[in-house]
Amino acid sequence: MTTIFWAILAACFADIFLAIVTVKTYRLIRDYNLDHGHSVVGSNLSGILLALFVVIFAVVFSFRAGRDIVEYLRVGSPSVYSVSVSYKNIGHGNVGNERSFSSNIDGISIEETPVDISLSPKEIAILKSVIVESDEALDDVGKKTSFVFVREDSFTVEQKVKVTENGGRNKGESVTWLVTYSFNKK
Asked: Whole-prediction pTM value?
């Protein structure tokens, strides 16, 4: 709902901007007409017509834009997705080999074995991945959070998670993991 609020607020600021431009344009037309000997009545009438046109245009545009935004963000009926996650080392550093992986979607733990989750198309899902390389003194941790719109059909989302060695002889080296979430609509 906050996205709709910000869209409407942006449309209101656009309307205010158009109103300021209209007033400035009206004053320019009025001053030009007065400087060239035209009547004040004609200047005021043309300025009022210009202002009326711009205001009507701005109001119609704002309502149409707001309606389109609401329609786009309307969440569909929930669907069940079979979701799994996979991890692939795509880096070439040395941060040890005692790793643990955890991933979740909206707080629901996801593993390499598919898990059924009910999600609504166009809903925003929060994907969190954590990769930990265990060390005696201080664990090396890589984290990534993504916000994605749920699609109507099956889809995948990829995250790159970087794990950096905090200590020891390989301090500063890092490895990047590709975490792939697979959403298969049932």
From this structure: 0.60
